[in-house]
Amino acid sequence: MAPSTDLDTLPAFATLQALSHQVPDLTDPALLTPDRLQSLRSHSAGFDLFYATQRVDESILAALQALADQGGVIEQFLAMKKGAVMNRIEGWPSENRQVLHTACRDVFGAPHAPEATGQTEAELKKLADFLDDLDQGRLTNEQGQPFTDMIQVGIGGSDLGPRALYLALAAYSRQGRQIHFIANVDPDDGLAVLKGLDLSRTLVNVVSKSGTTLETLTNEELVKAAFIQAGLDPARHFLAVTGQGSPMDDPAKYLRSFYIYDYIGGRYSATSMVGGVMLGFALGAENFREILHGARDMDRAAEERESRRNVPLLLALLGIWNRNFLHRETLAILPYSQGLCRFTAHLQQCDMESNGKSCNRQGKPLFYQTGPVVWGEPGTNGQHAFYQLMHQGTAVIPAEFIGFRANQYDGDILVKKTTSQEKLTANLLAQSLALALGRQHDNPNRFFAGNRPNSLLMADRLTPYSMGALLALYEAKIVFQGFLWNINSFDQEGVQLGKILASRLLDHMAGQQEDAQYDGSGTDALGWALMQIAGLTKS
Ligand code: G6Q
């Protein structure tokens, strides 16, 4: 595996810094030509990437390729897929694990990490048997009726990716099957879902890799209480997806149990059983395999060294260009597809939890920027909300647009000679060009500076296959950037501190009569004081 070195020590870093003093001007009519649109595009596993509207030229692209080569990103990616222990910080206590989410979909040919892929195959078989038992009427409710609904209880990686995928593919749902999600420990999240559901025909899929997450265990109890109150036996309705040996690894308590393995990180787990059980129930086993197939094809495409033939790598390099050389703080991900309404939220976790780091893989502080703030909403809704700032605000916000040539459902209509899908794609292309080109105007209020860099990802249609490919595209993009920044993209120590403080406050709340006289010092005392000031203590 290539050595992990800081980005600013790679020779191409200095080249790119020099090039960043004279970046191409996208508002120059001689620059953004049909020829440029034609030549600055790339293709991997069903997705085109159009990037003529990025502030790059041939020298910048060559230097970015050199950066990828010098950083050994493809060697590191291959090592990751083969099971190298990459989730670690040298010389410091860390998770010290392999990173093998790609093994979840490496089931269609010679696998890179046969042992991990073998475990995936065993879980897929268990899932196929479970789905078959439901279809054949071997698994029914107390009255012999089929199950129609499933509640997925989980949070973070056990919620965002699976939920984004379900919403993206709900158009392909099996007749009469519906999924609901409970993530937040806010009781209103769970109670709102439970209201109006026929629990007798509902399965509950409790998903927690650790089996210890406060929100998930609390929500499991909330839902269980509702089942018991309705006279139903939770053991006939509840499923578990958890880590081997976790406190939830107790098959006697659940109708069926599935495993997520140690080497699959939560935010990279949507194609494991974390997403698989719910997606298999909703869409059928075949559609779930199609998701895996698309992801596998993109994983393979991401092994290509030449960035202009590797969309995830190219997108990663363009992101590094905008972040480290043009110093852009945020990245808007803007899907022109209603199905992708929660995909940006998933990427927000996958990207920001992976690359929101400030020490390198040797535990040393970093002196360059790492992950940007990722945000966004589906278009065209966003156009009527925050695009004003993107076009005319003082911050320059790079954007990644995602679009499809065809929509998912039948029944589109013609209004003024165009379909709704045509209206959607026309807006998508128009925004990409408008941000780049800007507009000259005497009236300063109607002047658009342009030079807002953006890329456009396009596929034919949002299907299980293309959704799998898109998910894997972004996962690979994120890990490529992490390799270049020389950070560990696979841990999440930054979420611990708040959790620890919250559990101390809960201790206070649980025993607050006795704690009323608490006169401790430091953070505990401050927490207790804040609770009192905020009016959250029982008087
Ligand atoms: C993701 C994180 C985190 C995790 C949740 C849920 O990479 O590790 O978001 O997925 O905290 O954890 P459990 O699945 O263990 O409940």
Topology:
Elements lengths: L10 H9 L14 H6 L1 E4 L2 E4 L7 H13 L2 H10 L31 H22 L13 E5 L6 H10 L8 E5 L4 H8 L7 E7 L5 H16 L8 E5 L13 E4 L13 H11 L1 H17 L9 H15 L4 E7 L6 H13 L17 E3 L11 H6 L6 E6 L9 E2 L2 E2 H18 L16 E6 L4 H22 L10 H15 L1 H4 L6 H12 L6
Parallel strand pairs: 3-4, 3-5, 5-6, 6-7, 8-9, 8-10, 10-13
Antiparallel strand pairs: 1-2, 2-13, 11-12
This protein binds glucose-6-phosphate.
Task: Quickly describe the structure.
The protein is an alpha/beta fold. The chain has helices spanning 11-19, 34-39, 58-70, 73-82, 114-135, 160-169, 187-194, 214-229, 273-283, 285-301, 311-325, 343-355, 387-392, 420-437, 464-485, 496-510, 512-515, 522-533; strands at 41-44, 47-50, 149-153, 178-182, 202-208, 238-242, 256-259, 330-336, 373-375, 399-404, 414-415, 418-419, 454-459. Among the domains are: 101-293, Rossmann fold, CATH 3.40.50; 495-533.
Q: What key phrases describe this protein's structure?
A:
539 residues, alpha/beta, 42% helix, Rossmann fold, six-stranded mixed sheet, binds glucose-6-phosphate
Poorly predicted parts: none
Shape: globular
User: What order do the strands of the largest sheet run in, or round the barrel if closed?
Assistant: 1-2-13-10-8-9
Distance N terminus to C terminus?
61 Å
Find the count of extended strands (DSSP E, 2+ residues).
Answer: 13
CATH topology of the domain at 101-293: Rossmann fold
CATH-level-2 architecture of the domain at 101-293: 3-Layer(aba) Sandwich
Please summarize the sheet with the most strands. 6 strands, mixed
CATH-level-4 superfamily name of the domain at 101-293: Glucose-6-phosphate isomerase like protein, domain 1
